[in-house]
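Input record (one chain):
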Amino acid sequence: MGRTARQEAAFLAARAGLYREHAPSPVLEAHFCCLWSHDIHDGPNRRIAIVPDGYCDIVWMGGRLLVAGPDRSGAFPSLASGEKIVGARFAPGAAAEWLKVQLCDIVGQSIPLDDFWGAAALRLNELLGACAHSDERLSQLETALEKEVAKRAAPARDMASVFARASDISPCRNVTDLMLDDLSIGVRQLRRRCYTHFGYGPKTLARIRRFQGMLSLCRSKKALPLAALAVAAGYSDQAHMTRDAREISTLTPMQLQQQIAG
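The corresponding structure, as predicted from the sequence alone:
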């Protein structure tokens, strides 16, 4: 399938049904940003795009528990209409400890959770599979994660600072320089830690978070002209924004605006 055909067929996952986020319990809030559910409503022929956000998730879908590693570009999984998915999104700096892996080793991959947790993941998968509804499944997942917290070290706090800097779309000097100033470490150490906890270096993380910032602006009530959207999202110009959007999602900023507003 050619590039143009992929762009025409791509459809943001958030638009493919009902997506909801839930705050984690106090026990989990240092380790997870949120728990979430996604009920897929669109037909099976729709090409659904899951765009990168800099996070890593534990996901139950298709009757299996998976680890969805961080992505550099959009993923296009086969999602059947009526599928009910639940997940837990790791907080920045938490996933490497829970999975005992450097995230650069799982970029762009969906890997069975039992590859990391063995029999415990298989038992949890059976438990979730026996649930009748997404809310019950999400509750069981949260309870299982709460039981694991005591075995896990606290998330790397410096990586939360790096993630926050990467997510700041306000005009500023070089984001990597600001990260280095915050942490008082060298460039090589920053890169190593980013590869461990995010899967890629600080510049790629900032690029992905800037793209997510642009999507957030598209969700605001007042639609911005594309040139103004580029400036507000921290791009050098509209062409820069368009190039990044197409490389990350296969969609243009105008297509993204139309889908989010539709």
